[in-house]
């Protein structure tokens, strides 16, 4: 099992914690990581792009000139794609870009992402992260004490922490039920409380 240091919000090391190899020590599967990221981004797409085909634009019912003898190329409609105001060839239509990722694949990808952070020594475990009031300045002070800037902060049931972090563009907060592979890989450092680590290990072990 991997041992990681445990810090308090002042940035001082106060102990160590063992991480389960079943969650934080698996072999990193880059293919599953890629699939999970593509799945996440695809699900976020609105899929509302739309353009009209030649059958949907108005006008163009009459043949613009006779077939032969004009010196022009033959044309059947002024709403063909080559005309100004014509339809679009293979026009995009509203669609759903999301696709299914199996439950076992999702779990394995998340374990790979967590394990990669441990392997790169980019995980910081806090003994607790409690804030009595919503204060962005105090949250920023904690991040500065931990010497992290771009971080994903995983806490459970602490609304003040979430609200305090929302004005910091380089930080995102998540709970153990909302963490995903994309966010873990996107942010340089994973900051997680001991309680959140215990919950993650209980759910994904």
TrEMBL record:
Region (Disordered), start-end ranges: 44-86
Protein encoded by which gene: rplD
Stated name of the protein: Large ribosomal subunit protein uL4
GO terms under cellular component: ribonucleoprotein complex; ribosome
Listed transmembrane segments: none
Entries under NCBIfam families matching the protein: rplD_bact (TIGR03953)
Function as written in the Swiss-Prot or TrEMBL entry: One of the primary rRNA binding proteins, this protein initially binds near the 5'-end of the 23S rRNA. It is important during the early stages of 50S assembly. It makes multiple contacts with different domains of the 23S rRNA in the assembled 50S subunit and ribosome. Forms part of the polypeptide exit tunnel.
Any one GO molecular-function label of the UniProt entry: rRNA binding
Keywords: Ribonucleoprotein, Ribosomal protein, RNA-binding, rRNA-binding
